[in-house]
Design goal:
Elements (H helix, E strand, L loop, with lengths): L11 H20 L14 H9 L13 E4 L5 E5 L14 H11 L11 H14 L9 H14 L3 H8 L3 H18 L1 H11 L9 H9 L8 H10 L12 H17 L5 H9 L21 H13 L7 H10 L2 E5 L3 H14 L7 E7 L6 E6 L27 E2 L5 H10 L7 E2 L4 E3 L3 E2 L7 E2 L5 E3 L9 E2 H7 L2 H11 L2 H9 L14 H5 L4 E2 L1 H12 L3 E3 L4 E8 L2 E5 L6 E3 L3 H17 L14 E7 L4 E8 L2 E8 L8 E5 L2 E5 L6 H13 L51 E2 L13 E2 L9 E2 L1
Parallel strand pairs: 1-3
Antiparallel strand pairs: 1-2, 3-15, 4-5, 4-20, 6-13, 7-12, 8-11, 9-10, 14-17, 15-16, 18-19, 18-25, 19-20, 21-22, 23-24
Helix pairs in contact: 1-4, 1-7, 3-10, 3-11, 5-6, 5-7, 5-8, 10-11, 11-12, 13-14, 15-23, 16-18, 16-19, 16-22, 17-22
Length: 756
């Protein structure tokens, strides 16, 4: 039994002898010499030989993980993401100084020996015995490359990384066999190229191109002699020789490399001496990894793109397959994000809502007819600190958004109107629409079981002056709740369900909108801005709904070869007739012309339409609107649904009460104005809606409306369910925890009444 040292393990001499035995084994196989001739060296290796022979014949080289670049629609860089910061380059794109430096310091006989350097092993053995330790290694560049392949294959799994780097005879045998194969198949230049691309240079930099960028803000092909020597010296111990954290130690190591280059004849003694006197000359470039570094506030859109990739089967059948492709990287993703639109969204949000405000705002712009997401942003930036968030308020929870979305208030009413028009109701349909009424005793659903008003729940309009009869156009302009509940009772809920299904309208958690009157008319159910912008885009495109998309194309570079990947496509389908869409456009044009959305209206003669929405207790305010070529949704509110927007300052402006028209409306107006600047201004195909005069209520002039005909008041909306509905189910949350939205329990009238 070998004699052990007091500290445990074999002595340095015994370790070296054991290492020599395995190395001679590999050298013998390389030379084609019979093993028995080496028995005198003390190699009792029958088991080792069997293990060697049983190894697979071919080294499976995984594609090197690289950075992924996410671009906007015009090719501008949004962000880079990676698990390994690496850009693979070919040998001709690497400075000759770098090639010589790494060979000189790591394996000066690289071009003279095979996969294993027997002369180097003997030299290392002698050196280590003399020093009573391990003073010198004997791995060739080829062996080091193979080891790095094992490490790369292990990825970020700590157990696999440990197995790939553990100092065992078994691993060395495996490394040696594959080194022989690599030498035979690749040749010296390709091995050197692969090694310089795979090895770790510290500071998150994998491969020489990333290292050149990291330390010197230059390319690998432009590295000077002192720079190349520094990088070559780092490889042996990236932490010890890190020039950023220990300049003195890194300088000593660089100078050792320069001296070695002179010794092997790569440079003259004079060149070495001159380079050794040079300062390190660092020009450090901080790594920018991940969507948190995205430009123009596009971090949330960037994360949305990542989630699309990781969730869409087009990129792989399983979650694991998709994650593997994403982590491998090397992707160039051109997205739909339009720089002009994105800048306009962020500028508008910044102007109207401060990061430090008690409430937040989110805005999304979508192109009608294509589904392309052109802009997406919010007032609280992506991050983990105070007044920052990881939640993307514009999207559903499965894509990084809040748990349920946000109650939309009266912005839901156009879906009811579209359903009624599709059912054959006239555009000038009239209902009594009293100031106050009970919910209908029953309302037909899509099943055989109707909804029943078991609690005798009631609703009312915000002001006693709001009483009918009203026709559809005026009811839409003033956002009269009792009108739309009567319309729902008339047509039943199933036509609305069918309409919202065609428009892709689902709750923020992905569930269908519940069949209860408050959800089906007054927006008590939580939806996301992307859902609303996409649904309203169908009105703009004359009835064609297109699923939202964020990716236009993807190319992947693997082993120097580029290939295109299939990407998800928008699916467009007819949600309603052109006549219905044109009628809705006419109705919603009136909202911005003379109704609750006047403060949101666009100037310059550009056709535009939209709808305001404010929910119970003013926890949410919305404006959703569009032109024929752009649709946008803006939400303002409390992400945790704890802040009631009464007596509140937002963006430096005091509000006694917040309305859909006076807060999200101007955000929408400014975002749309900037996004559309310099672009065509097509017109809607408006229809004529007969609108005979209705006797004016003597109190009408005192209306408190969001931009009604009277400048001295606002229409505050119409339904206040909080104290009257009874059968509601709501769950609160705190500012640091789960995002809350008012939800219907399927039998009551929801958790958030709709207001204008």
């Amino acid at each position: 039994m070998p004699k052990k040292r007091s500290g445990g393990g074999l002595s340095p001499t015994q370790q070296a002898a054991k290492f020599l035995g395995v190395s001679v084994l590999a050298g013998a196989m390389l030379a084609g010499i019979a093993l028995p001739a080496f028995g005198a060296l003390g190699l009792a290796a029958k088991g080792s030989v069997e293990s060697f022979d049983e190894l697979p014949a071919n080294l499976k080289t995984p594609p090197l993980s690289q950075r992924t670049t996410i671009l906007d629609s015009e090719g501008g860089q949004i962000a880079t993401v990676y698990s390994r910061d690496r850009t693979v380059v070919d040998l001709k794109s690497i400075s000759p100084y770098m090639q010589k430096a790494i060979v000189a310091i790591e394996d000066s006989r690289f071009y003279e020996h095979g996969a294993v350097d027997l002369k180097g092993i003997l030299r290392a053995l002698n050196k280590n015995v003399q020093s009573s330790g391990v003073a010198q290694g004997a791995s060739t560049l080829t062996q080091q490359y193979v080891k790095n392949v094992f490490v790369e294959e292990a990825g970020d799994d700590p157990t696999k990384v440990q197995q790939a780097t553990q100092q065992t005879i078994g691993r060395k045998i495996k490394e040696l066999k594959y080194a022989i194969q690599v030498e035979e198949e690749l040749g010296k230049k390709k091995i050197l190229e692969n090694y310089l691309n795979i090895t770790f240079f510290g500071e998150q930099a994998y491969g020489v191109e990333a290292a050149a960028q990291r330390y010197f803000s230059t390319h690998a092909k432009d590295l000077t002699l002192p720079q190349a020597a520094l990088l070559a010296g780092i490889v042996q111990s990236p932490s010890r020789y890190d020039p950023i954290n220990d300049e003195a130690e890194a300088t000593k190591r660089r100078n050792t490399v320069l001296q070695r280059m002179a010794e092997v004849g790569d440079i003259t003694e004079s060149e070495a001496a001159t380079a050794q006197k040079a300062p390190l000359g660092l020009k450090v470039k901080q790594p920018k990894n991940g969507c948190i570094t995205a430009v123009q506030g596009a971090s949330f859109f960037c994360k949305y793109v990542e989630r699309v990739f990781l969730s869409d089967p087009v990129f792989g059948k399983t979650k694991e397959e998709r994650a593997k492709v994403w982590n491998q990287g090397g992707l160039t993703i051109r997205t739909t994000l339009e720089p002009q639109s994105q800048k306009s969204v962020q500028d508008s949000l910044k102007d109207h809502v401060y990061q430090s405000d008690k409430v937040a705002a989110a805005a999304t712009l979508v192109e009608p007819g294509t589904g392309k997401i052109l802009g997406m942003g919010q007032s609280k930036p992506y991050g983990y600190g105070k007044n920052e968030t990881e939640y993307n308020y514009s999207v559903n929870s499965s894509m990084g958004g809040s748990n349920y979305g946000f109650p939309t208030g009266s912005t839901f009413k156009p879906f009811v109107a579209a359903a009624a028009l599709e059912e054959g109701r006239p555009a000038n349909q009239s209902y009594p629409a009293p100031y106050q009424m009970s919910y209908p005793s029953t309302v037909q659903t899509c099943s055989s079981k109707p909804w029943t008003n078991e609690g005798n729940d009631t609703l009312e309009n915000e002001s006693s002056s709001e009483k009918g009869p009203y026709q559809l156009k005026k009811a839409m302009e003033l956002s009269v709740n009792t009108y739309f509940v009567q319309m729902l009772a008339d047509i039943g809920m199933c036509p609305v369900v069918k309409m919202t299904d065609k428009l892709g309208v689902v709750q923020g958690n992905g569930d269908k909108v519940p069949e209860v009157p408050s959800s089906m008319t007054l927006g008590s159910t939580g939806l996301s801005p992307l859902t609303m912008a996409s649904a309203y885009a169908a009105f703009a495109s004359r009835g064609m709904y297109c699923t939202p998309i964020a990716i236009q194309s993807i190319t992947q570079t693997v082993g120097g070869t580029k290939k295109s990947l299939e990407v998800p496509k928008s699916t467009c389908s007819r949600a309603m007739s052109q006549k219905t869409a044109d009628t809705i456009n006419t109705l919603l044009s009136g909202v911005v012309d003379s109704g609750t959305g006047q403060q949101a209206g666009l100037s310059g003669g550009r056709d535009n339409a939209g709808k305001t929405g404010t929910t119970d207790s003013r926890k949410n305010a919305w404006f959703v609107g569009y032109t024929p070529n752009l649709s946008g949704a803006v939400w303002v509110g409390s992400a945790t649904q704890k802040v009631e927007m009464n007596n509140i300052t937002i963006g430096g402006v005091y509000h006694g009460q917040v309305y859909g028209g006076d807060t999200p409306g101007p955000i929408w107006r400014d975002a749309m104005t900037g996004a559309l600047e310099g672009k065509d201004a097509p017109s809607f195909n408006l229809v004529n809606i007969p609108n005979p005069p209705v006797a004016k209520d003597p109190d009408d002039g005192n209306r408190d409306d969001e931009g009604d005909d009277n400048d001295d008041g606002f229409l505050t909306g119409l339904l206040t369910n909080g104290g009257t509905t009874g059968n509601t189910s709501s769950t609160g949350g705190n500012d640091g925890g789960t995002l809350f939205q008012g939800q219907s329990n399927g039998n009551g009238n929801g958790g958030g009444g709709g207001r204008g």
